[in-house]
Amino acid sequence: MAHEAQKAIARQSLLLKSLPNQHVDTLLSHAIWRSYDRGETIFLQEEEAKAVHVVLAGWVKLFRMSPTGAEAVVSVFTRGESFGEAVALRNVPYPVSAEAVSACEVMHIPSPLLLSLMKEDPEIGVSILASTFTHLHSLVAQLEQLKAQTGAQRVAEFLLNLCDTADDGCEVELPYDKMLIAGRLGMKPESLSRAFSRLKAVGVKINRNHAVISNIERLRDYAEADPSEK
């Protein structure tokens, strides 16, 4: 049974916050609430999609396995973010697998319930389209990074996205292990280590799972600079 705090987080997710309250209450009352340990599978690639998922706490990764057994990280989600909308509503298999990369809590909304409510109120469809568009925009941004930025610039932008202050400097905790960070940024672990070393020149110091950024504006200038100048 979900606590009110969990429901409050779910209400603020992109998927639910634009819906009328009566629909949100219906979805929350029929949702499945689960906790996962680090490394636990949420669903597997090619499994039938039966729900839309909202992360309430922790981190979840989506990934694909190649025929050679290599893992390609597609995306990483955290508190208040949803995934699986498009495939769940089309009743097709998942094109990716999902795994908890930290202890996490996830709300699962059965797709038949969403489809039923969509037939009653088209506004629900608009909300789901908005959520799906956000995922598409994120993937386009990832592609742009891979094409237009060096590895060190991608790491710089990743660190900047963790900063929640406008001060000159800050210290942030790396939200998951370095191997996953490398996969998320389209890099090999050894390339990530070299990128961290390069960022020392712009005031970034890595200490285990923390990054100390001496000057946020300087790091932003580095991330946005023309790669040909590097």
Automatic annotation (TrEMBL):
Pfam families listed in its UniProt record: cNMP_binding, HTH_Crp_2
Domain called Cyclic nucleotide-binding: residue spans: 15-124
PROSITE patterns with a match to the protein in the record: CNMP_BINDING_3, HTH_CRP_2
Gene3D superfamilies: Jelly Rolls, Winged helix-like DNA-binding domain superfamily/Winged helix DNA-binding domain
CDD domains per record: CAP_ED (cd00038)
GO cellular component, one term: cytosol
Keyword annotations: DNA-binding, Transcription, Transcription regulation
Molecular function GO labels: DNA binding; DNA-binding transcription factor activity
Record-annotated HTH crp-type domain positions: 149-217
Name of the protein described by the UniProt record: Nitrogen fixation regulation protein FixK
Species assigned in the record: Ruegeria denitrificans
Gene this chain is encoded by: fixK_2
